[in-house]
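Bug #77: duplicate submission created two jobs. Keeping one. Sequence:
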Amino acid sequence: MQFKHLDKFVPPMIKKQLQQLIFKVVHIKPNELKATLLSFCFVFLLMTAYFILRPLRDAMSSDWSDPELSWLWTSTFFFSFIAVTLHGAIISRVKLKYVVPGVYIFFSLSFVLFYLFAAVIPDPDFLNKCFYVWLSVFSLFHVSVFWSFISNLFSTEQAPRLFSFIASGASIGAIIGPTIPILFASDLGVMNLLLIAAGILLLPVPIINYLESLKTTELGNKNLDTQRSNKKLERDLLSGFMTLIKDPYLVSIGIFILLYVAMNTFVYFELRKFLIDFDRDTRTQIWASIDLAVNLLAITTAIFATSRITKRFGMPMTLAIIPLLMIVGWMAVAVSPILMVLIGLQIIRRAGNYAITKPGREMLFTMVSNEARYKAKPVIDIVIYRGGDMLTAWFYTLLTASFGLGLNFIALIAACLAGLWAFTGVYLGRKYNNQNDVVI
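Kept job's structure:
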């Protein structure tokens, strides 16, 4: 891409320097720029739509008791299981070029239906609970489908250079999205946010089709599917689960996700305890400050550091670096169990996941077949993730409520889990490198 649209406004020397700066900073080659920026916009729009609705969902949770909320989490797991199973059945029978845009059109229409139901259903509490569960399913599903599509677009050589920059679009969307309800909810009305998010979800549809055309033209990945030995997808409803179980590589990714979820649960539950003594406005400000710090750090890291880490240290270190930092962080919490240390750990964990761990683990799926990418991957990203939420929450409750362990001991146990997480990351990184060598 030669930036021809800048010819009339920018002197040739400045244009050349600008072009070289972009390619040097983010390691994007000229023929990859258009596809990379469109992928960036794609995930930016998805996360903007989600984060418009997320505050609406989280505000509802305060209306319910702990048992009610626990049942909603359980319902989310089972509905996630059903959604992934149906997705696997549909994707086996419908051409892939229709499935990905179809997912976002379907969810867009579902939010329009929630808007319409709100005007006719007499029991708002029941509708609110349905929306809470549905948005929780959507929160993982839309991202999983996006990365399945993207991992089939770029080659194994391109992914380490480009995925971190693409992922930064998610962080920017996570900043822009919440500002819409903050600034306009009182004027537009809360329920109208559903229509705004539904409209934004439709914007990636033409982008998807254009990206497919760029795969075989500017990206030069016409033979990518042939290299990955793809065959017709199985029509069995549970074939995604069976593909996962039979493949040690995919099982290892599932374990990696479970250990990540454990870190998330432990930090979240402990932070929640520390914030009990604050009033709701102060808690909101603290959580908002954490979100802001996380996304700013994630964007900076993703654009300027992640691809360099991957290129210099390889995939094993890319996948293990955040788990290793978590070991150090949990040891610091064990020595000094105070709020600020825990907040720092939360910021590092979430920012590191968005900027480094998430792009790294998505690169793992550039090595697999379409059967694994489009059917087993949602099982890992959604079913295992939500199942991990439940399992680790109950494990944490067992440690605290049954055994009476305090934060010091919880931190030591979490550090051990982080060690297993790092080991799994190194194993996956080596497997990725070995398979990549075979493909090359």
